[in-house]
Design brief:
This protein is 34% helix and 24% strand. It has 259 residues and is of the alpha/beta class. It has a single domain, classed as 4-Layer Sandwich (Purple Acid Phosphatase, chain A, domain 2). The strands form two sheets. The chain has a six-stranded mixed β-sheet. It has a five-stranded mixed β-sheet with strand order 5-6-7-9-8, covered by helices on one side. Strand 3, helix 3 and strand 4 form a beta-alpha-beta unit. Helix 1 runs parallel beside helix 2 and helix 2 crosses helix 3. The structure holds manganese (II) ion (MN). The site of manganese (II) ion (MN) has 8 residues, from loops.
């Protein structure tokens, strides 16, 4: 048995959705091992207001702190058993920081991140940066990634940050319900240019909640064509999850499972 690589995203863990947390922790227990690479490709948490929330523990009535600690500690248990854990930010949990990563035994990744998967160079992304037709979101994304803006948010008292997160979440839900469906998906040209820029034939991302495997045609600088692949991991719900799994040097498989 060779190495197993697992990629998941968009769990949107939230104190109000305990079934997903239970499903995730059971999945983690089942899959942790000594030769496992686990990639968490963003929006693992539905909201993240700063690592210092974890210090509150049970004293946080919203339940966010208890959830964060439980997830960090179970990831750490997997890490202690030899699972290598890699963590990428999503558009919801972009404030996840080094304190969480350290407590979870995880390594923070850049977005995009280029890795070798089963011998094939592969680009990993959360996916939000590919949805360039959503101009309002792209403008927010620039602000949200600005260290000064982040510092100003993290300087706010925790109750204010919790209120802001719930307000942003509500606004995003209202805005998205009126946006055209194609705006919420990736821009095809953006996919091709990211893959060509990073010289990969395979891209794996989440974010769009449209799990699928898309074949695509890439054009090299000399005009020659090659076949490529875009794999989209699905979002988790109260009884269903999605993963991309690669056993040894095998081909990646997109799997749906229930819990
Ligand atoms: Mn997302």
């Amino acid at each position: 048995m060779g190495k197993t690589t697992l990629l998941i995203s968009d769990l949107h863990l939230h104190p109000g959705a305990p079934d997903i947390t239970r499903g995730f922790l059971a999945w983690l227990e089942e899959n942790r091992g000594t030769d496992v690479d686990l990639y968490l490709l963003g929006d693992i948490f539905d909201a993240w207001i700063g690592d210092d929330l974890m210090l509150l523990g049970d004293a946080d009535p919203s339940g966010h702190a208890r959830l964060a600690c439980a997830v960090a500690d179970q990831l750490k248990a997997a890490s202690d058993r030899g699972t290598r854990i890699y963590l990428m930010h999503g558009n919801r949990d972009f404030l996840l920081g080094s304190d969480f990563a350290e407590r979870a035994g995880a390594t923070l990744l850049n977005d995009p991140q280029r890795i070798e998967l089963g011998g094939e160079p592969t680009l990993l992304m959360h996916g939000d940066s590919l949805c360039t037709r959503d101009e309002a979101y792209m403008a927010f994304r620039v602000k949200a990634r600005d260290p000064q803006w982040q510092a100003s948010i993290l300087a706010m008292p925790i109750p204010e940050r919790l209120a802001l997160a719930s307000q942003l979440r509500q606004q995003s839900g209202e805005a998205n319900s009126t946006k055209a469906a194609d705006i919420m998906d990736v821009t095809p040209d953006e996919v091709l240019s990211a893959m060509q820029q990073h010289d990969v034939k395979r891209l794996i991302h989440g974010h769009t909640h449209r799990p699928d495997v898309h074949p695509l045609t890439l054009t090299a600088a000399d005009g020659s064509k090659t076949q490529g692949q875009r794999m989209v991991i699905g979002d988790w719900s109260s009884n269903e999850g999605w993963e991309v799994r690669i056993d040894g040097d095998g081909a990646p498989a997109l799997n749906r499972f229930t819990f």
